[in-house]
Structure formats: structure tokens, C-alpha cells
TrEMBL record:
Record key words, sorted: Cobalamin biosynthesis, Methyltransferase, S-adenosyl-L-methionine, Transferase
A GO BP annotation: cobalamin biosynthetic process
UniProt name for this protein: Precorrin-3B C(17)-methyltransferase
Organism the protein comes from: Streptomyces flaveus
Every CobE/GbiG C-terminal domain range: 191-312
């Protein structure tokens, strides 16, 4: 819950806007501010105070205990100009909250935690449990001192400015060993525990068996990703409660699925009871991985048979490939999601000119693998190979990365052992359409005139089909130095089915500093003015120029009647 506190009329108005926007996440604290702040501090995970920072500092100072448990606090000034992350920037989520409140109120978020200011991710914000001297290692990262990364378990991490060796270390490990001085240990969610239990098995017995198994094998419970069992045990209270106490989800699989998993220790008892010769080992291994602890029975209570089993598996680490569209060029047409993915990746793969377009957004330590025009296949293969090594990779393309770009060659290479995320981008046809007016208001296609990878006969057949079907056409890759006859030819084919006066929009470098556009007609377009930085949109037989804009009617009846 986010507690909202204000003192003045202006503060109350801003407070109401936040409360109205997030009705389920916020609670308004009325009454004298001192009391209100103290109550909210005790009851909420986060506070937004529409008060001066000084007032809030004085009120919360006696209440602050520990940055792991204190709420995150954001202050918004009387003018609503700034949303200041005051306390709990990372652990309390105040930095993020300041950003969200800022967006809502049109206020500038003010974030002063050092790691965010210089673009180094906070070690406590990576989404993994972390142990050890976080403060010292963070400071070393910020000061540019050499910090080594030792990944015992390869896991997709955001970029960290690390050196091959150093006095400080970031270890990525699911092993129990305590961090040494000058070390932090990140705990990736790499372990799965398969559990079996007889009906009515007490939670303490189930839990003790899991904890003993992990401890005896030298594994950290903080790396536990999930418990797994058979469908028939989905509601077994001892298992459900054990997962809840461990703070991990319980996933279940059908007996058939588990019966198909090869395990070292099958037995007859579960086969008779639930229809699979193994529950613990099979449920842990069903998604692959390395069996670290084979089936282990619980100690059982005095004189009683063991009621629980478990087995521990280290999951194969899955790299992450984000295929990110950068939009047509302008920074504000790059989506926030694309920006997040660029900052989350430790490896960036792309064409050199696109890398330049977003270089300033990358976090220090990002490994950049750039190549020139024509190296598409190599880029696709590199991106997939890096993800398969367990890295977080972003493969970038201009516009939308799936439109005449890198997504398909990359996914043609990719196997199912990596996670793939696509981030859509504003493709050139849309960027151009918005500049021209509304040329794509009815059915439309894109056709690339590049015959580098596609035989001209196929391109021509598609142009002809679009011409016959009276569809608006946007030509990508319309013309280059070595390819000058294709565009006139394509326009001539369209001209067989459309009037010479059909509107044609030509947009060069949409949304880039040297953007230009013009509206002409099929008869008047001078192909020599078109190059590779251009898209050409040809209207259908209903497209009109209206007040200097290109408009393809949507075809509503009322519009036709009005004509
Ligand atoms: N993935 C890109 C397209 C790559 S093909 C996208 O979705 O936009 C390259 C062609 O796209 C260029 O030859 C040009 O025709 C077009 N193009 C890309 N960006 C453009 C822009 N900003 N303005 C005009 N045309 C553009």
C-alpha cells in the first residue's frame, strides 16, 4: 500500500490525482501531518508526502531503522514540479515510485542514489537475493575500481562494469559458501526441488527434509526457484504450506508427464498411489537440468515411516534474447519498453549506425558487438550464440525489428533453450503515414523493392497483386545507386490500375533531423528524388489529397453519402 499525506490545498489536489489514478494501491492519511506520517510509516510499504523534504526528514528521522525494511518515501513539492526519492531508493522502491509519480503529475523525478545517477544497476535491484558487502562493492563499481565477476552459474545479468580480476568480487552462485570480505554473492533462481509426500504429511517434516537436503549438499535456499510435484499432490497441505514458507511457487505436472522422465531411483509405491514411478526426482528433472541431490526421504517422526521425499536439480540457465525495434529515429519514438530492454542487456548486437543511435542509453559495461551493412547473418548468429551462453542480449533494428530486419534471421537460428522477447517499434510506413496524413486508413501492404534476397519476379507478382486488389502500397528499400529501374517499373504496374492523379507520398528520413516529405502523384513522381532513406506510399483509387494531406477514406457509409 502507498500512503498519501498532504498538508495544503495544492498538496491535497495532487494527492487526489494520485489516489484517483491508483485507487487499489493507495490510502489517504488525513489529520495532523505528524500523526499521518507516523501511521502511514507503520502501515505502508511506500509513502508519497506532498510536503517539503525538510518536514518529512524531521518527521521520519526517529522512525528509520534499516534500509532493508524502511518504506520508500517520495516527496512532492508544493508546486508539483519535483518528485523526490527521499528514503529507500532501492530497497523501498522510492526511485521507481518517484518516476511513476512524476509521470502522473508531470513532475521531474529526482533520484540521488549514486548507482542510478551514473547508470550502474544497484546490486540490490537486480531481482536476485544478494548477500555480503553490498555497500563496499557498489562503491567500488562507482569509483571505477576493478571488480571481478565470478559466475559459477551463468545467468542473464544486466551489464556491470567488471574487470577480469580485482580486490572486489561479485559472485553469482547457488552454493552455500558465505561471502568473503569485499564480496557480494548474487543468488540466481537456479534450483528446483521436487517433492513427494504421503497424504497428511506434516509441513514440518516436508520442510525439514528440503532444508536438510539443500544444506547437506551445500546449496543456498535463496537460490530456490520453485517446488515441483505431481498434479495429484497440488493441494497436499504439507507441500502447499512448505512452498509458502519458502516463499516460492509450487508447480505441478501430470503423472503421465512425470512417468516419461528418466530418473535414477524409480519405485513402486508412487506408481501405485499416483501413477508415476517417481515424483520428487521426475518433477525436479522434468524441465531438464542437473540432479544435485537424488531422492531423499524425510527423517519421519519417532517410529513412523518417512512421509516425504525430495530431490534437488540445478536448472539449465536460460539466456535472454530481446529483439528490440528502435523506431524510425527520433528519441521520443523509441518506446519505454525498448529503453528498458537496452539497459537490461549485457550484450548489444546491431548495425553500427543503429548502435550509434542509442549508445548514450547503454549502461556502462555493456558489451557492444557491432558490424556493418551486409553482415545480417553473422549478427543473427552472434546474438543467438551469446544468449545460449546464458547472457542477456539485445539485438536491435531500426523501426520494427521484425519488419525487413533482424527478428526473422535471429529466430530462424534460435533453439528453444533461450527466452526470446520482442519489443515492437514504430516502423517506417507508420512514421511516414503520420507525416503524410492518413494514407493507411484502409487496407495496405508493405513491399520491399530490394531484389538482393528476393527474385524480381516474386516482387513484381506481389506488386501486381496489390495493384489488382486496389490496396495502398508502401515501398521499402525503394531505390539505391545500383537499383534504379525497380521503382519506376513498380509504379508503372500500379498505374495500370490507378489514375495518374493517384496521390503518392514520399518521406525521407522520417523523424530524423533531416526529415523531408512531399506529396505528389503517380504521374508526377520523379523516381530520381527517391533513395534508400525513403519510403514511398502509393494511394488506392479512393485516396485523396485533402488540405495538403494524403487521406485514404476508411470507407464509412456516412462519408460516402455525404460525398
Ligand atoms: N525495420 C525497418 C525497415 C528496414 S528496411 C522498419 O521497420 O522501418 C530499410 C528501409 O526502411 C529503408 O530503405 C527505407 O525504405 C525504410 N526506412 C527505414 N527508416 C526510415 C525512415 N526513418 N524514414 C524513411 N524510410 C525509412
Amino acid at each position: 500500500m502507498i500512503g498519501l499525506i498532504s498538508a495544503t490545498a495544492a498538496g491535497a489536489r495532487a494527492r487526489e490525482r494520485v489516489a484517483a489514478a491508483w485507487p487499489d494501491r493507495t490510502r489517504v492519511y488525513d489529520g495532523p501531518v505528524g500523526d499521518a506520517v507516523r501511521r502511514a510509516f507503520a502501515e505502508c510499504e511506500q509513502l508519497v508526502c506532498f510536503l517539503a523534504t525538510g518536514a518529512v526528514v524531521r518527521l521520519v528521522a526517529p522512525l528509520l531503522a534499516d534500509k532493508a525494511s524502511d518504506p520508500g518515501i517520495v516527496c512532492v513539492d508544493e508546486g508539483g514540479r519535483f518528485a523526490v526519492s527521499l528514503v529507500g531508493g532501492h530497497g523501498g522502491g522510492a526511485n521507481e515510485l518517484a518516476g511513476a509519480v512524476g509521470e502522473l503529475l508531470g513532475a521531474q523525478p529526482v533520484v540521488t542514489t549514486a548507482t542510478d545517477a551514473v547508470g550502474v544497476p544497484g546490486l540490490d535491484t537486480l531481482g536476485f537475493p544478494v548477500e555480503g558487502d553490498v555497500a563496499a562493492v557498489s562503491r567500488a563499481l562507482l569509483d571505477g575500481e576493478p571488480v571481478a565477476l565470478e559466475a559459477e552459474v551463468p545467468w542473464p545479468l544486466p551489464p556491470l562494469p567488471v574487470a577480469p580480476a580485482g580486490q572486489y568480487t561479485i559472485r553469482v552462485s547457488d552454493r552455500l559458501a558465505e561471502p568473503t570480505a569485499h564480496e557480494v554473492v548474487l543468488r540466481p533462481p537456479s534450483l528446483v526441488v521436487g517433492v513427494g509426500a504421503s497424504k497428511g504429511a506434516p509441513v514440518d517434516e516436508v520442510l525439514a527434509n528440503i532444508e536438510d537436503a539443500l544444506r547437506d549438499a551445500g546449496l543456498s535456499a535463496k537460490s530456490l526457484a520453485e517446488l515441483a510435484t505431481v498434479d495429484a499432490k497440488a493441494d497436499e497441505p504439507g507441500i502447499v504450506e512448505a512452498a509458502a514458507r519458502l516463499g516460492v511457487p509450487l508447480v505441478t505436472y501430470s503423472a503421465e508427464e512425470l512417468a516419461a522422465v528418466a530418473v535414477p531411483n524409480p519405485s513402486d509405491a508412487p506408481l501405485a498411489a499416483v501413477g508415476t514411478p517417481s515424483v520428487a526426482e521426475a518433477a525436479a528433472l522434468v524441465r531438464g537440468g542437473e540432479l544435485l541431490v537424488p531422492k531423499r526421504k524425510s527423517a519421519g517422526r519417532a517410529g513412523q515411516p518417512a512421509m516425504a521425499t525430495c530431490a534437488v536439480v540445478r536448472r539449465p540457465s536460460r539466456g535472454r534474447l530481446a529483439v528490440v525495434g528502435l523506431g524510425p529515429g527520433a528519441r521520443d519514438l523509441l518506446t519505454p519498453r525498448a529503453k528498458d530492454e537496452l539497459r537490461r542487456a549485457s550484450v548489444l548486437v546491431g548495425l553500427d549506425q543503429y548502435v550509434d543511435q542509442i549508445r548514450d542509453l547503454l549502461r556502462p559495461g555493456t558489451r557492444i558487438l557491432q558490424s556493418g551493412l551486409g553482415a545480417e547473418e553473422e549478427r543473427a548468429r552472434t546474438a543467438v550464440a551469446e544468449a545460449r551462453l546464458g547472457h542477456a542480449v539485445a539485438l536491435i533494428g531500426s523501426g520494427d525489428a521484425g519488419v525487413y530486419a533482424m527478428a526473422s534471421p535471429a529466430l530462424a537460428e534460435a533453439s528453444d533453450d533461450i527466452d526470446v522477447v520482442g519489443v515492437p517499434g514504430v516502423t517506417a510506413a507508420l512514421a511516414a503515414g503520420a507525416i503524410l496524413g492518413a494514407p493507411l486508413g484502409h487496407d495496405h501492404v508493405s513491399i520491399s523493392l530490394s531484389d538482393l534476397h528476393t527474385p524480381w519476379e516474386i516482387i513484381e507478382r506481389r506488386v501486381r497483386a496489390a495493384a489488382e486488389a486496389d490496396i495502398v502500397v508502401t515501398f521499402y528499400n525503394p531505390r539505391s545507386r545500383g537499383r534504379d529501374w525497380q521503382l519506376p517499373k513498380a509504379l508503372a504496374i500500379l498505374g495500370e490500375h490507378r489514375e495518374p492523379a493517384t496521390p503518392v507520398g514520399v518521406v525521407r528520413n522520417a523523424s530524423r533531423p533531416d526529415e523531408s516529405s512531399r506529396l505528389t502523384t503517380l504521374a508526377e513522381l520523379d523516381a530520381a528524388t527517391v533513395d534508400m532513406m525513403t519510403v514511398v506510399t502509393v494511394g488506392n483509387t479512393a485516396t485523396r489529397e485533402i488540405a495538403g494531406r494524403m487521406v485514404t477514406p476508411r470507407g464509412y457509409r456516412w462519408q460516402e453519402e455525404a460525398r
